[in-house]
Write a structure and sequence with these properties.
The structure is a single chain. By secondary structure, this protein is an alpha+beta fold. The protein is about 45% helix and about 20% strand. The protein has 2 domains: about 150 residues, Jelly Rolls, CATH 2.60.120; about 120 residues, Arc Repressor Mutant, subunit A. The longest helix is centred in the C-terminal third of the chain and has 16 residues. The protein starts with 6 loop residues before the first strand and ends with a helix.
Length: about 290
Amino acid sequence: MNVDQPTIVRHQVPPSLRGVIVGIVGYDDVAPPGGRARIQPASSLLILEISLTSPLHIRPLHAGLDADVAHRTFLAGLSTAPVQTVFFGRHTSIQIYLSPMGAYQLLGIPGTETARIVASADELVPQWAHDLADRMTDFTNWPQRFAAVDRELVRHAGIEFAADPLVTWAWNELQLSGGQVRVGELAQRSGWSVRHLGQLFKTVTGVSLKEVARLIRFEHIHAELGAWQLSDVAQRHGLSDQSHLCREVLQFSGETPLSLSTSRRPTAFTALGVQPGDFGYALRNHT
């Protein structure tokens, strides 16, 4: 393994879980002396992580050590702010990427209780999270680990907590438009008021339609940084000017566009090997 780059092993999501689980990857990395710190931009996906080794320390980007939380198994809820992650020694984990609707169906917990926080999975789903993490340490290779995770996810991903189809539809439309469809237009096309659609959406995701639209737009912008002039990127994504783009990038990543482009921060998209917008098509085809 290259000591400067993590090993990423992508696992095909079982057919019965597509539409609930966006992607599953195995992650393995070794920190240099003193630990490895990374900045993680905001993401429209939630992450359920099962650590097989040392815990991952997570804190708001500009917070002090007193804001640090460390878990072996955790859910990182939908958030519009970047965070810093730190680990020491070797960090091996399975990362399960979820849409807010998938997280609701799998865990039975609305986004209003998980958004903007990192919570121990032992507290959220104690009936299986702790046991699964312990069993993972008995396996020596990725196929065995993935098979055990698949069995557990299939067992718990019932339809009892399926999100309202209207929320899934709105989410897909935001993804497919790159976050550029207006909330009023979404409401008009849905046949419901802006207030009704917004309330349903926020109950499941924990974040407003407008915030999620901006976050998804940022993800598309991030993918294009370095390939286009900033003024062109701003125009392509419906921003008023380059200054507007810089403010958006700073809010969701904690960095300037130039810094974000050159740093090549890890994202859900780089982990899963997909492009922004692919999730909308995947969810639409399986809901």
